[in-house]
Design a protein that fits this description.
The chain has 2 domains: 2-80 and 309-340, no CATH class; 84-305, Rossmann fold (3-Layer(aba) Sandwich), CATH 3.40.50.410. It contains 11 helices and 13 strands. The chain has helices at 15-37, 43-46, 52-73, 111-125, 150-158, 172-182, 212-221, 263-273, 285-294, 314-329, 337-340, and strands spanning 2-4, 76-78, 83-89, 91-97, 130-136, 140-147, 197-203, 225-231, 237-238, 258-259, 277-280, 300-306, 311-312. The strands form 4 sheets. Strands 6-5-4-7-8-11 form a 6-stranded mixed β-sheet, sandwiched between helices.
Length: 346
């Protein structure tokens, strides 16, 4: 497949008609001036060696070299067409709690940053898998659809925070339902999707919405396991106003709001879907234990589109341009004796 890396440079070709127009006008003015001094039939006496053919030929050579140089600057390259290759891997959707309680600093620097750092390191452990990212609090939002571009995944993860979700709280059903919609309906090769898809929920709060077990049951029906990671203290900790703040959020009566980790619900979600529950503290090793367990999942073959490496071709255009310039340099403006007998472009 042939293409250019910078198509905008090709707009430079628009100057070619301008050069052509200028050359034609110049030839016309020159002819008019000659008519002032002598009849057209006498021009060959005044300028016996002048050749219109040679003038046009030299102009076309210069114009051709300019075209080739513009094409070279546009970055021509050749590569194979988009093709599909089969890989073995999983689809993993991570649902990350970004509620304000995740800013608690009982885990340094805070719970959210610890979770993000651990997930970033987890992405580095994945190879042929596809990963998606969902953030949730009182609602859930897809931040990044399934991809095998782990560099992009780490970039999206880095920017995840409470500001992404306007409604606060902890709605685990919303996270599960959003994750279920993020997977491929079936594998691209039409194979059974069972045991090839997993959800990882990372949260520090107790669920505030109904229907969490119903959502987990739907995941089970689709053959999707849900793995849960609990961050925080089951006894509860105050929710800071912002990251690093020493003041805490309060309810309408002025009481400090305390967020408690609901381990029972997280364990039940994992057990009902054949997943794992892990309690995570300051040490992110829990996430890596989960990855090792996920490696035990049956890996399905899926198709992904890849490009072969491109072969740059700009040097050929530059080479031909220099060759044409060299030919133009050694081309005389004067008539050639054998061409003068043909009476061309006189």
């Amino acid at each position: 497949m042939f293409e250019f890396t910078n198509y905008n440079v090709l707009f430079g070709l628009l100057i070619i008609p301008v050069f052509l127009l200028i050359f034609i006008i110049n030839r016309y003015i020159r002819k008019k001036l000659l008519i002032k001094y002598a009849d057209a039939t006498q021009h060959w006496i005044l300028l016996p060696d002048s050749s219109s053919f040679k003038a046009w030929m030299k102009f076309i050579l210069v114009l051709s070299s300019i075209v080739l140089l513009i094409l070279a600057l546009a970055g021509p390259r050749v590569g194979s067409r988009l093709r599909e290759v089969e890989k073995k891997g999983r689809e993993i959707v991570v649902a990350l709690d970004v509620s304000y309680s995740m800013l608690a600093s009982d885990i340094k620097p805070n719970r959210l940053e610890m979770a993000k750092n651990a997930l970033s390191r987890m992405f580095e452990q994945l190879e042929n898998d596809r990963v998606g990212l969902i953030v949730f609090a009182g609602e859930a939002y897809t931040v990044m659809p399934l991809t095998n571009d782990f560099s992009a995944a780490k970039l999206f993860l880095k920017n995840a925070g409470p500001a992404m979700v306007s409604k606060q709280g902890t709605s685990i059903p919303s996270a599960i339902n959003m994750a279920l919609r993020s997977f491929s309906p079936v594998m691209p090769d039409g194979s059974d999707p069972n045991f090839s898809k997993a959800i990882i929920i990372i949260t520090d709060g107790e669920n505030h919405e109904t229907g969490v077990l119903e959502s987990a049951e739907e995941a089970k029906k689709q053959g999707i396991t849900i793995n849960t990671i609990g961050i925080g203290d089951p006894d509860g900790v105050p929710i800071p106003l912002s990251s690093g703040s020493s003041d805490f959020r309060r309810d309408r009566e002025g009481n400090v709001i305390v967020s408690k980790l609901d381990e029972n619900t997280l364990k039940q979600i994992a057990n009902n879907t054949g997943g794992y529950y892990i309690r995570s503290g300051n040490d992110p090793a829990g996430l890596f234990r989960l990855i090792r367990k996920l490696d035990e999942m049956e890996k399905q073959e899926f198709k992904t589109k890849v490009f072969a490496q491109y072969d740059e071709k700009f040097q050929y255009f530059i080479g031909f341009a220099l060759l044409i310039i060299l030919i133009e340099t050694f081309t005389s403006d004067k008539k050639n004796k054998w061409l003068s007998n043909l009476n061309i472009f006189r």
